[in-house]
Amino acid sequence: MTGPMLSVSELTAGYGRITVLDKISIEAGRFGNVGLFGPNGHGKTTLLRAVSGLLKPRQGRIVFDGEDITEATSRAIVKKGLIHVPQGNTLFPDLSIADCMALGAYSPRARPLEDENREKVLALFPKLRERWRQRVATLSGGERQMVSIGTALMSHPKLLILDEPTLGLAPKIKDELCRSVLEISKSGVPLIVVEQDVEFLLELSQHLYFLNHGQVETEIKPGESLGHSEIMAMYFGH
């Protein structure tokens, strides 16, 4: 790939009279995985919502896989292969795991690969096979997150966005999920990940953006190194 799969240019967005993102620019999919980090409430989730069509930008441009998607609906963006897993296990609680997986494969580009992708998801998350017919509401938080990511993978993403995938999970389940996300990356799916676990983000990402007050305060490009202590200094000041 000569250019980025995703390019966000001079994007401004917010809610009501509040501006959250102020002319922010990032790119993803050219140099490997992208990690987004920074204090809570400073624009990370808002950026992801704008990119995936859940929030209409006030100005700026979003290009995905060579197409301008700034004004596209979230449904159209999903069909193009840009898949967003939001915070908080927001899947349909009354559906079974099997039903969620089938929904994930609804788009024309994903449907022919449904069987193949289902086996990949179940190899990645063996617990889901054991609970295949259970309702999502009966699962633990970690299992629901596995269903969320698994459903996204059923959509056969060209680019997968994960917003704090380990938020609120017990340490053992969190470690298990982190290993699974690394496996997804190794399978060739490029990722954009928002995560507060600095060590995991450094292990996963080749390209990092530190967001502060709705802007990119620091960009760490591939080949540049940044230690845990330097990141902590960004969060809490020098």
UniProtKB/TrEMBL annotation:
Residues 6-238 form the ABC transporter domain. PANTHER family: HIGH-AFFINITY BRANCHED-CHAIN AMINO ACID TRANSPORT ATP-BINDING PROTEIN LIVF. Keywords: Amino-acid transport, ATP-binding, Nucleotide-binding, Transport. One of its GO terms (molecular function) is ATP binding. InterPro entries: AAA+_ATPase, ABC_transporter-like_ATP-bd, ABC_transporter-like_CS, BCAA_Transport_ATP-bd_LivF, P-loop_NTPase. This is ABC transporter ATP-binding protein. SUPFAM superfamilies: P-loop containing nucleoside triphosphate hydrolases. Belongs to the ABC transporter superfamily. Pfam families: ABC_tran. CDD domains: ABC_TM1139_LivF_branched.
